[in-house]
Write a structure and sequence with these properties.
By secondary structure, the chain is mostly loops. It has a single domain, classed as Herpes Virus-1 (2-Layer Sandwich), CATH 3.30.40. 14% of the residues lie in helices and 8% in strands. The protein is built from two helices and three strands; from the N terminus they run E-E-H-E-H. It has a three-stranded antiparallel β-sheet with strand order 2-1-3. A hairpin with a 5-residue loop joins strand 1 and strand 2. The longest helix is centred in the last third of the chain and has 6 residues.
């Protein structure tokens, strides 16, 4: 099951479970602006590409809540 991390690893922008977000196969999570902009579609952690993070339906979100663990790259993401 996806963690649904609560923030962008680059800019630390909040990404609630229903927000648009991009993830790689390791669930590294980024806002669409960072994923397309500074990262140019490539995960800085694994080198993989991004896919849109799915939205968990509310009944399932209540049963399986999103993660509260914030992950942020030290120093942000280099341009």
């Amino acid at each position: 099951m996806l963690e649904l991390r609560p923030n962008c690893e680059c800019c630390d922008r909040d990404l609630p479970p229903d927000a648009a977000a991009m993830i790689c196969t390791f669930e590294c999570t980024f806002c669409p602006d960072c994923a397309a902009g500074v990262l140019k579609g490539e995960c800085p952690n694994c080198g993989g590409n991004f896919a849109p993070r799915p939205i968990r339906p509310v009944p399932m979100l209540e049963k399986y809540p999103a993660s509260t663990r914030r992950v942020v790259k030290t120093g942000g993401c280099a341009a």
